[in-house]
Amino acid sequence: MLALDLWVRCGSSSFFLIQIWLRILALSTPTHKPVKPAGIPIFLALDIILSIKLIKMTEFIGKSHLTTRTVTGFRSLDLAFPQFSKTKEVKIGIPNNLPYLVFGPKSFGKTTICLSLAGIIAQEQRKNIAMRSIEGFDAEWSGQQLDAIGFKGKVLLAEGDDNEEYNLDKLLEFMRDESVAVGILDSIAAIQPESEVNAKSVVEIQMGRRAQITNKLMRHVTNIPFWRESPLAFFAITHEYKPYSQYEKSTKPGGDGKQYLSRIHIKVGREKWSQDTGYILEDGSFIIKGIVEEFNYGIKGRDFSLFVLGNYGLHRGMSAVWDCLRYNVAQKKKGRVVLGETSATLNQLLAQAHAGDDATFQPFIDALQDVYEAKPKKKEDESSE
């Protein structure tokens, strides 16, 4: 029994080796010495025991195989990452233990999204954020974005060395600590390898070094969760440069490694409130449109919207108003947003948002609780816009 217990604890590969060894031992028995009849049932019993153990070992061992989620309260964002089950139950919320690649044109809201979502994830776990901001960290602006979503923790900055590779190693060191829930790299396109800094001529520059550094970083990021007790999310930000011609793809610096090592790809764009307004409203507010271009469950093409209030950050109330419009729960009628008995103009809504009047937006938030997809528009609603 002791020997059998040791076999059971050895692992699946040892099981196969033991089986092979027993077979060889049986075959090596001289033919003039007949095998005892009791030997056959023993082999059959071993096969059954080992087969049962192998079946049990198909259970996943570890913590990184399950996607855990954080419900943000921004409805279209939470619905952009659904997980369906056989019982027709739908899990919503943003994954909080996967690496994200967030890209788009310059100044479109990439850092705003990443910093805000990082704050939501970290605050839920009562933990901190680790960040490397290569393009320069604005403490006042970043603090404003984090205050808007209720983050109360610390932001650990990986900086202080002229060699960027050391700073990235420091970021990884922070992310290995259980007190950190999210890591952010802003941005891949700004990574300047030491070979570029110290090069005396173009000939000495090691082309492709940025991609090598990025691949190394992303591989470490994907391995860190195996050794942690709590989930870890990571946001890698990079610019997307337009193609030179219609026959070329857009360029995202940092090599191809970041593409397949990032489980979620989000492309950031903008939306207009109406055809009569620009992308940026008079008070500095704007609407971010995110498109999920890749997700590890094979779901892609879903989009979400987030309303960024001028001189504030992500605003749940105004985001709820916009989501009610996109899901046809509310309607635009003669320049007013109408939801049941609630009716207000854009300027009135913005004034209430800046004044911190949350009660104005509660009907919109409540109306979205049971919404999972857009409702068909009524003809009278279309004609009244």
Describe this structure in words.
The chain is an alpha/beta fold and 385 residues long. It folds into three domains: 2-56; 69-310, Rossmann fold, CATH 3.40.50; 315-385, no CATH class. The chain has helices spanning 2-10, 12-27, 39-56, 75-78, 110-125, 139-148, 164-176, 194-197, 209-223, 257-261, 316-326, 346-355, 362-367, 379-384, and strands spanning 69-70, 83-84, 90-91, 94-95, 99-104, 128-133, 155-157, 180-186, 233-239, 264-271, 286-294, 303-309, 313-314, 331-333, 336-339, 342-345. The strands form four sheets. The protein has a nine-stranded mixed sheet, sandwiched between helices. A three-stranded antiparallel sheet has the order 14-15-16. It has a two-stranded antiparallel ribbon with strand order 1-4. Helix 5 (110-125) packs across helix 6 and helix 7 packs parallel to helix 9.
